[in-house]
Amino acid sequence: MTMKVERVELRVVELPLVEPFETSFGREEVRPCILIKAQGDGLTGWGECVAGAGPWYSYETIETAWHVLKDFLIPLALGKAWDHPEEVSREWERVRGHPMAKAGLEAALWDLWARSRGISLKEALGGVKERVESGISLGIQPSVDDLLRKVERALEQGYRRIKVKIKPGWDVEVVKALRERFGEIPLMVDANAAYTLDDRPTLQALDAFGLMMIEQPFRYDDLVDHARLQRQLRTPVCLDESVKSPEDARQALKLGSCRIINIKPGRVGGPSAARAIHDLCVREGVPVWCGGMLETGIGRTHNVALASLPGFTLPNDLSASRRYYRQDLVEPPFELHDDGTLSVPSGPGLGVEVVEERVERATVRREVFP
Ligand code: NPQ
Ligand code: MG
Q: How many angstroms does the Cα of residue 1 sit away from the middle of ligand 1?
């Protein structure tokens, strides 16, 4: 059953966050993102590009992603006959880098393709779980007391794992306070690349707290120093920023740069690449989990479907919609069950309704191709 994309609509939408989100690289109060609507054969598919306003997490921004989508990726996709989204993403291998731009459009094609077969994204990707485990990611707070209150709240809500953002000066004392107050809860930290080899005393101190993992302590593109660190720590190192493709994942495992990988479809170039890294990690016995980029319901749904694959054995950065947004762009919004999980939608494609009137209201820019 061959398909064709006849029309693509790009939008920038801006949604206010319920509270500011602060990491070692900056503070966000509003989340802008690009939404992609791909249409063909009377069907519609939705994707979300997770590039941020500035090049702080990675080099991509809303502007670079818009440019690459408009001038290179959409022209390569429009009007071509294809049987599977992976065929289209193979065409884009000619475009170096820009994984977030590729991932947003590829996600829309997966939705379109799944709908054309009348199956859910979960089935399309090979998912098996009906519910996925939720963890929460808590930003840097004004004080340790503020963080303790946030963690208490998250545990009451049922989140299965607490992740706290760290940076030099907001690390060992914070983790110590959390262990003193909450004991042996499932706890991890994410540095977003804020440390160097010189900070090893700090990382050694964190090693004593029985953390589930330390995420991306070193440079956003480093594999070598992480390998050296992993040999010196009991705590598993988890890579996020440094793994930008299946090839990076293969090299990271070969070098011993980490014992866990955070898979984000946006960061690695799309659902196909995300699944390839999952498959590699299953073969190598390396646990994975699905990260988050403060997605709206559209990106969140794609992530939840991915996290239903069997190798996603650790709690994911997939929280309830209301953790980030007062009103999500999809219905029903994601709600946390008492057991700390989210349901994986089972209807065709995304399996949730995109509320176009809300999308329209949040839109600050729009363009249609051709
Ligand atoms: C992480 N996410 O795991 C990311 C970091 C992050 C939920 O911790 C705009 C662009 C906002 C990129 C917010 C979580 C972002 C962003 C957070 C990246 O490292
Ligand atoms: Mg991270």
A: 38
Q: Ion ligand 2 — residues with CB under 5 Å?
A: 190, 215, 240
Q: Do 215 and 187 contact (CB within 8 A), yes or no?
A: no
In a domain, 229, yes or no: yes
**Residue range of the domain that includes 85:** 3-117+355-369
CA angle 274, 65, 239 (to 5 degrees): 35
Instruction: Name the residues annotated as catalytic.
Output: 165, 264
- For residues 82 and 151, state if they share a domain: no
Helices (H), 9-82: 62-68, 74-77
Q: ∠ CA 35-305-254 to the nearest 5 degrees?
A: 100
CATH code, domain with 213: 3.20.20.120
Query: Both 332 and 314 in a single domain?
Result: yes
Predicted structure pTM score: 0.97
Q: Ligand 1: which residue has its CA nearest to atom 13?
A: 293
Q: For the segment 26-66, what is each residue's pLDDT rounded down to a tens digit? A: 999 999 999 999 999 999 999 999 999 999 999 999 999 99
- The verdict on residue 348 lying in a domain is no
**Closest Cα to atom 15, ligand 1: which residue?**
293
* Sheet strands (E) in 269-315: 288-290
Report yes or no on 349 lying in a domain. no
